[in-house]
Design brief:
It is built from 3 helices and 6 strands. It is α+β, with helices and mostly antiparallel strands. The protein has one domain: Thiol Ester Dehydrase, Chain A.
Length: 147
Amino acid sequence: MLSIDDIRARLPHRYPFLMVDRVVELEEGNSIVALKNVTVNEPFFQGHYPQLPIMPGVLILEAMAQVGGLAVGGAGEDMVPLLAAVEKARFKRMVRPGDQLVIAAQVVANRSGIVKVEAEAKVEQVVCATAQLTFMLVQRGDVEKRG
C-alpha cells in the first residue's frame, strides 16, 4: 500500500534509522500493518551480539513507534507525531537476521493532539513485542525551529 518512497515522504528518519520497509495495510488515523526486513547487514548486529546476533529491543520498539506514527498520520503535512510515552512494553521473542517483523498498530484514543496507539510486532505470526505508545501532535514549524 505504501512503498519505501511513500514512507520516506512521510517519515523524517533515514538510514540507518529508518525501520519501516513497506506498509501493506493503512487506514490513516485508525490502523496499519507494516513490514521491517531484518538483515545481517544491519549496523547494530556488529556489536549486539557478534556471536548471536539479536535485534535490540529498543530498536524493535523504535520500529513500532515509526509504524505507529504512520498510523497516526492524517494530521496533515503541517503536523508531526512525536513519541511522548511508552507504556506496557513487553519483549517475548528474539528477533534475528532473516526475520521479517510484521508490525500492526491501532489508534485507541485521539484527544486534543494526544494520540494513544497499541502496537504489536510479530515474526512468523508469533508475537515478539507489544507496547502502548503515546504521540503528541506538534506543528512541523515548531519542530524545525528547535531542530
